[in-house]
Amino acid sequence: MVRNVFVVVIFAIVFTTACNEKESYNWNPEETQAVRKAMKVVTDVMLNDVFAPPVASRVYLYASVAAYESVVHTSEEYQSLAGQLRELTPGPKPNSDLEYDFEVSAAMAILKVGEALTFDNNLFHQLKPAVLLEIEQKNIPDEVIVRSREYGREVAAHILEWSKDDYYAQTRTYPKYTPTGESGNWVQTPPGYFDAIEPAWRKIRPVVIDSASQFVPGEPTEFSTDPNSQFYKESYAVYTALDEGDEMEKREIAGFWDCNPFAIKSIGHLMVGEKKISPGGHWMNIASLASEQSGADLLKTTEAFAMTSIALFDGFIVCWDEKYRSNLLRPVTYINRYIDENWVPVLQSPPFPEHTSGHSVISTAASIALTSVFDDNFAFDDVTQLEFGLPVRSFQSFREASAEAAISRFYGGIHYMPAIDYGVDQGEMVGNTVVNRVTTRK
Length: 442
What we know:
disordered N terminus
C-alpha cells in the first residue's frame, strides 16, 4: 500500500514538473538566425534558378511581408502592413491562448513563400535543413514547433493568395521583345546577345507607389553620332572612364556591384554562365548583415526585410517602365559602332535597355528604406561577395553604399552618366514614398 502511494506521488511530481516546463517556455524575440538563414536559402535558390532582377524582387517582397506579418502581433509597438500595401488584407492571427515561437513561424513563412515562387524545389529541400537545425537547437517543445510552423504556413498561404493578383502570371504570356532597329534604340549586346528581359514588368501591381509611371525621370540625352554632340561626349566619357584616377579601385568597385545573373565567360570555344547574386539579393543581404550587426530583435529584422523588399519591388517597376519607354542602346553598342570597334566594357551589359540605371534606382531606394530602420551613419562591412571570391568593402552608411553602387555602373561601362544621375533621382522618390507611406511602428 505504501509503495502505491509513493508511485502516485512521484507521478504527480513528474506531471506537475512537465506542466510547469510547458507553461514556462518563452520564445526569445532576440533570436533571428533561423529567419536570416531562411532568407539566404531563398537567395541561393534564386541564384541557381538565374532569376531576373525584377522577378527576384517579387519573391523577396512576398517572403519578407510574410515574415513580418507572422510576428507583428507580438508587439503593440508595431502594426500590420494590411491596408498599407495595395490590396493586402488582414491575415490569420495566432491563438492568444496558445504558445508559439514566432521565429519558427517567420522562418517557415519565408520558406513556404520562397518554395512556391521558385523553381528548384530539390535544391530548396537540400538547403532547408540549415534552417531547421537552428530551430532544433532552440530546444522548443514539440507541440510549440508544430503549432508555430502551422501558423507560418497559414500566413504564407495568405500572402501567396495576395500575390496571385499582381499581374505576374499574365506577363508570362507576353511575346518576347523585338528590337525596333531604329538608330539609338536598344539591341542585344555581346557576348551572349540575350533577348531583352521583362518588357512587360511595368504592368506589375506596385504595392506603395501609385503607378509605374509615377516617377518619370529626366529623358536621356538626344541620340547623335556627331562627335561634337552631347551624346557622343557622354559615350566617350564611358569609353575613357578608367583613364583617370585609380583604375584598379574602379574595377574593384565595378566588380563588387556587378550582380548580373546573366553574366557569362568564355572558356575556349565554350561560353559558361557565372552564378551571381542579383542587385536585390545584394541589398537583402545588407539588410540581414545590418540586423545581425546591430543585434536587432525578430520584429526589427523582419521590418528591415519588409521595408527593403518593398523599396526594391516598386523601384524595379518604375525603372523598367522607363527602360522600355526610352529604349536606349547600351554604351558598348554605341562605342563599338562609332568610337572603337574593339572596346570591351569592364562589365557585361545586362540584357535590357539602358535608361535609367537599375542599380542606381533600387540601391538608392533600398538605402533610404534601411536608413529608416537603422538610422543614418550605420557603418558596416559588406561581406556579401566573399562567397563569390571578391573582397569585403566597408561603408559608413547605407547611402554611401548606394552611391558607390550607382557610380559602379559608369566604371563598369554599362551606363551613361544621365542614367545614373536620373536613376538616383528615381530611387530617391521611390524610397521616400515608401518610407512616408508605410508605417511599421505606431
